[in-house]
Amino acid sequence: MAKFIVGRAVVDKKTKWLIQRVKPGDIAVLSHKDIDEVAAHQLIKCKVKGIINFQPSISGRFLNQGPEVLVNAGKVLVDVTQNGLIDLIRDGDLIEIKDDGEIILNGKFFCKGIIVTKEYIRSKYNEAKLNYEKEIEKFAINTLEYIKHEKKLISADYTVPTLKTDLRKKHVMVVVRGKDYKEDILALMSYIDEIKPVLIGVDGGADALLEFGLKPDIIVGDMDSISDKGLKCGAEIVVHAYPDGRAPGLERVKQLELDYKIMAVNGTSEDMALLLAYHSGADLIIAVGTHTNMIDFLEKGRQGMASTFLVRLKVGHILIDAKGVNKLYRYRIKSNYLAALLAAAFFPILIISTSSPLVKYLFRLLIIKVRMMFGFL
């Protein structure tokens, strides 16, 4: 059997942590059920040779887009169903993936997986379409159940930290590294340049802003999908904690010896960011890349969206969701506009060229050079 791909393993059960360590040419070894589109694009950006997943990359439960993105980008994706095998692979191990899904670890047969192909994905999509109505019903029931426990988000029964950054009467842009976040930030660059909103990065959303040369004013979240560079960019840091005292990102911030504040609230970090902006007196909140629909939440492993529903119910009158704004209007220069611009520029250039001795001299040199090229001299 011919060798398909060979590379060094980088192993992590959390894809968002693996992405921070993987290098071009590596084979990503992960445990990620129903790979989401954002994770897929990040793996592609890291230029991995292939992906071995010890969970179903597409289970057929819902229409997750990640596997299709990876396969369309030419990435080798192998699903392995045997439990516990991921624990036997170490960073730096040499892995060979053969074209029948056979995996060779350090020169010896390890296991056999399923190569995820376009045909396989298509069959799972058909399965997901049949499950769609059932998943909607289950998701709605879970959301209503969670609402009972998270209704304090409406009553503001939580402490909002006092920030150094002044948000009062200002526009605030909350950036999450969600679907199409790059295209949406790009579409909003003119708005950012002109209005200069306060920029809040939610975890990896801070890195998203830095990609565009924008420095976040505030970073909020569990600090599990942001780079060290992002955390050290000088932004004000607010660690997301929960009412039971848990603050998953606190230890990392302390290890980096960074100043921080804590905000304890149920829900997601992006919910917390919206509440922070709202209670800090923002005049308008623009949300970019946030998770707002059932597929978004299922891809993130959440079974309901109670906190997001309640938070948007509370802040909705000053909230603009910019998700997909790049598709709203795409400006293209029309040919007649371009012709008019060139015509308008022609006459000033003509006047300058006839009145400036230096420009006249350069034009003569250019004409001589052209004549030499075509053999007229």
Topology record:
Blueprint: E1 3-11, H1 15-18, E2 27-30, H2 37-45, E3 50-53, H3 66-72, E4 76-79, E5 94-98, E6 102-105, E7 108-112, E8 114-115, H4 118-150, H5 152-155, E9 171-176, H6 181-187, H7 189-195, E10 198-202, H8 205-211, E11 218-221, H9 228-231, E12 236-241, H10 250-255, E13 261-264, H11 269-279, E14 284-288, H12 294-299, H13 306-315, E15 319-321, H14 335-355, H15 357-373
Parallel strand pairs: 1-2, 2-3, 3-4, 9-10, 9-14, 10-11, 11-12, 12-13, 14-15
Antiparallel strand pairs: 1-5, 4-8, 5-6, 6-7
Helix content: 40-55%
Number of β-strand runs = 15
Integer-rounded radius of gyration: 26 Å
Main β-sheet: number of strands, strand sense, barrel status?
8 strands, mixed
Number of helices: 15
The structure class reads alpha/beta
Strand content: 15-25%
As for the number of domains, it is 3
Question: What is the average of the pLDDT values?
Answer: 84
Distance between the termini: 65 Å
Shape: globular
- The secondary-structure element order is EHEHEHEEEEEHHEHHEHEHEHEHEHHEHH
In order across it, which strands form the biggest sheet? 7-6-5-1-2-3-4-8
Low confidence ranges: none
